[in-house]
Fold:
Amino acid sequence: MANLWSGRFEKGMDEIVEKFNASIGVDKRLYACDIEGSIAHVTMLAKQEIVAEAEKDQIIEGLKKIKEKIDSGEFEFTVKQEDIHMAVEGALIEALGDVGKKLHTARSRNDQVAVDTRMYLKEQIKEIRENLIYMEKVLLEKAEKYAASIMIGFTHIQHAQPVTIGFHLMAYFQMFKRDIQRLQDTYERMNYCPLGACALAGTTLPTDRHFTAEMLGFSAPTENAMDSVSDRDYVIEFLSDASISMMHISRFAEEFVWWNSQEFSYIAIDDSFCTGSSIMPQKKNPDMAELLRGKVGRVYGHLMQILTVMKGTPLAYNKDFQEDKEGLFDAIDTWKASLRIFAKMIEKTEFRLDMIEKHLHTGFLNATDIAEHFVKQDMPFREAHEIVGKMVKFCENHNKDFIDLSKEDLEQIDDWLSLEKLPDLSIEGCVNARVSFGGTAPTEVHRQIKAGEAWITELENR
Structure:
């Protein structure tokens, strides 16, 4: 069958060009959206008396049969069809003859691909949102379990201050919360229908774009026909959302890799999320965490690819835009899989409190608490900071911890110091005292968990 656009051409495409030009291998996953958009379009054409009701019915019936064939795997895709739009329309014309040729009235592949991609992306955003919500629920459950369990908080990969495991997990809850919010903002901005914009300038036919927009579940039609077909901001914004979220996954996965090492031994990852070594029988490798950490690179790459594609394209539509979907589809698949796998891995991972306890008494985790205790005794913070720094240095030089310092040691460090002026030096005391809003005290962690649960409930009820 000749190309549906071949009227002004005397020659067919060179075989190598035909393969290079075709996108059917990538965009065939849009078939359901393409057919749904075509049904809405022909319904509008009939309502506006641009095609007859009987013709509309024939076309819709034909489109439904094509969808059934694709659903069942009976439909054969070839590069000669070029893209999903031509594949569906070509099959329709083959089935209906001249009536099928009326479907493409008052539209172009330029607006057709834009509406298909937006419809598909809207569906995927809803799925990814559910995956993110599931991740949040897992984090809330784990945070509740370990709300009062103490671990080490790090800065610069050095022991910094004691925190609770629940507190640490709730930090990631906030990251994924922002991911959900960004995704919702993207959905809202892209929820406008480009169908009917045609090639770039609209149409002389009496179409009703508001009708098709409503029928396809969009907020409204896009405002400017030229922008409608040349806009790929929604793809860029989605890939940006995906990149940020994958970065959060990668950071968390990196901590899983640390925590799983013999040097830390903070966690026990379920065997079903690890692999062994082909040569070392003793190995239990955190391969899923490492893969999750690495997957972010391909999503970053897709974002940079589409930014590069778009940077030099003049208005309106350009063939370069065909390169928007392969990276988009891969990023969708990667993000969804990463969220599902990581959430399940977190569910099946337990913290080894006995091993964490062994690390709590190194690195002077309570140093800041001593300085703040001195501040409560009307000492300027900078002076308190300096005195505690001297205490740390003395302890390092004499192989001691704060709790080991004697009256004489304190006098040697600074004339002002005495045993009576020191606070509760226990790690538990340090954690329990950090009751500032957003702090690590178990009471605050429980408040954060309750706030997170309320936010998820509100989100699901919208």
Notes: The first helix runs from residue 15 to 21. The longest strand covers residues 158-164. DSSP finds 18 helices and six strands in the chain. The radius of gyration is 31 Å.
